[in-house]
Design a protein that fits this description.
Elements: E1 2-7, H1 20-29, E2 35-39, E3 42-43, H2 47-52, H3 54-61, E4 65-68, E5 71-74, E6 77-78, H4 89-109, E7 113-117, H5 123-133, E8 137-141, H6 144-147, H7 153-164, E9 167-170, H8 173-182, H9 187-190, E10 195-197, H10 211-222, E11 229-234, H11 243-256, E12 260-267, H12 274-282, E13 291-295, H13 302-307, E14 311-314, H14 324-331, E15 336-339, H15 342-348, E16 355-357, H16 362-373, H17 376-393, H18 396-423
Helix pairs in contact: 1-18, 4-5, 5-7, 11-16, 14-17
Length: about 425
């Protein structure tokens, strides 16, 4: 099958972490396809605007085409006015601006199907192109795309996408439930012919990996001793991700366990709330040498950071499709504590492979950090149980193979229908 992947975000030189999980999905799909190419539309950034805004300066430097890790990636520009127009730009404007280029690409390659990663940033483009090219278009609901406001322009664009895509994958049951509500029905009535709950999954740790060496090196760099307990957070440095609750909990727990240390990995100054976190750390003497914030790391480096951790903290309170950083920590056998939001509860599912905490409650989060930090046997049990969950249900190559099989079935049916229509 020749597959066209549309991505709302995809890594590039100026932002190598943007859409990194989309790229991992593509790499898992690549061996299954005869041909796979990626289109990741980018906002057009006028020169003057580029000089005024760091984000738009990045947009202006994105190249229109590159071969990235063996995949041809096209980045056609579409117009966008910041803060105005809402989803109009990523929906209709993106299609009108990029359709000629993609139609030309289709004439050269002959795509059998389209798969969009994100229903808002790429879903509208996907179903419109599917209609124009007469091939089936599928989409993957990642999280924020489905959990947005129902009455906004984004909600209207999402509704059109949900109604028109031939197949939709959802990272979690919560996302499926939100989609069903937007469609004015229930999950049971929608069934699984067009709607399937399937996490895109994560890459597993490298087969050859010197974990002890990475642990010793990083802890030495951080000034952390062998007997210290490191509580790690990996993700975007945003208040919505719970970074301040994480800092509060680590600060409180460290009052009872002096050897406790907190590390946050994911800083992108100018693109997140790093400045606010740094002010918080400078303004509280209790945080001196106890909590540090580090730059965002590449996908391969995350395994080193997880090797150095004793506990993983996932304090996000909402708008998570399926928490990939949490799954990565679990895949390494790192015992994890997380706020009990719906997708996290789906992962844990009564197995005891995660320590669940009431969302937003930094006091209970601190208590559970203290409990795990004081009990190495329990840390080992939680870590091993969590690792088994991930390896059974959340491996990207296995889940992409499932998605590919479903999409292939639909593509074959569409092709057979076209042949019958042509004969008639």
């Amino acid at each position: 099958m020749n597959l066209l992947v549309l991505a709302g975000a995809y890594p590039h030189a100026d932002h190598p972490f943007a859409g990194v999980f989309s790229e991992r999905c593509v790499q898992a799909l690549l061996p299954l396809c005869e041909r796979l190419e990626v289109v990741a539309p980018r906002p057009f950034a006028p020169p003057l605007l580029s000089n005024l805004n760091p984000r738009w300066k990045v947009y202006s430097r994105i190249v229109g085409h590159e071969i990235r890790n063996g995949v041809s990636v096209y980045r056609p520009a579409y117009p966008q006015i910041p803060r105005l127009g809402g989803a109009v730009w990523t929906d209709l404007a993106s299609y009108l601006s990029t359709r000629r280029k993609i139609q030309g690409l289709h004439r050269r390659v002959g795509f059998d199907a389209i798969l969009s990663f994100d229903l808002i940033a790429a879903g509208g483009l996907a179903w419109r192109l599917g209609q124009a090219l007469s091939i089936p278009a599928a989409g993957w609901a990642f999280g924020e795309d489905v959990l947005g406001g129902k009455s906004s322009s984004y909600g209207a664009a999402l509704l059109r996408t949900l109604q028109r895509l031939a197949l939709i994958f959802y990272q979690s049951c919560e996302l499926f439930e939100h989609a069903a509500r937007l469609l004015g029905t229930s999950m049971d009535k929608l069934g699984n012919d067009r709607h399937l709950v399937l996490s895109h999954g994560i890459a597993v740790p490298p087969a050859v990996f010197r974990r002890d060496e990475a642990r010793s090196r990083l802890r030495r760099d951080w000034g952390v001793g062998d007997s210290d307990i490191v509580v790690l957070y990996v993700g975007r440095i945003l208040s919505d991700k719970g970074v301040f609750q994480f800092i509060d909990a680590v600060t409180s727990a460290a009052q009872r366990i002096p050897l406790l240390r907190g590390v946050l990995v994911g800083s992108l100054p100018g693109m997140d709330e790093t400045a606010a976190v740094e002010r918080r750390l400078r303004g509280d003497s209790r945080l001196l040498d106890r909590v540090r914030i580090l730059p965002a790391c590449g996908p391969e480096a995350v395994w080193d950071y997880l090797s150095a951790a004793d506990i993983f903290g996932f304090p996000s309170r909402h708008r998570e499709g399926m928490p990939n950083s949490l799954l990565e920590a679990m895949s390494m056998g790192v015992p994890a504590i997380a706020f009990a939001i719906p997708p996290v509860q789906e992962i844990e599912a009564g197995t005891g492979g995660l320590v669940l905490v009431p969302p937003g409650n930094s006091k209970v989060l601190a208590e559970q950090i203290v409990r795990l930090a004081s009990d190495p046997v329990e840390r080992t049990r939680v870590g091993k149980t969590g690792q088994a969950i991930v390896m059974e249900r959340f491996v990207v190559r296995r889940n992409m193979a499932t998605a590919f099989a479903r999409l292939s079935e639909i593509a074959e049916r569409w092709a057979a229908s076209r042949r019958s229509a042509e004969r008639a």
